[in-house]
Amino acid sequence: MSKVKVISLGGSIIAPDGVDFDFLNNFRRTIEAYLAEDEEHRLILVCGGGGPAREYQKAYRRIMAEPVAEAQDWIGIAATRLNGELVRQLFAHHCPERVVTDPTALTLFPGRIMVAAGWKPGFSTDYDAVVLAKIFQADTVINLSNIAQVFTADPKSDPQAKALESLTWDEFRKLVGHTWTPGKNVPFDPIATGLAADGGLRVIVAAGRDLENLKKILTDQDFIGTTIGPE
Question: What domains lie within the chain, and their CATH numbers?
Answer without folding.
Answer: 4-229 (3.40.1160.10)
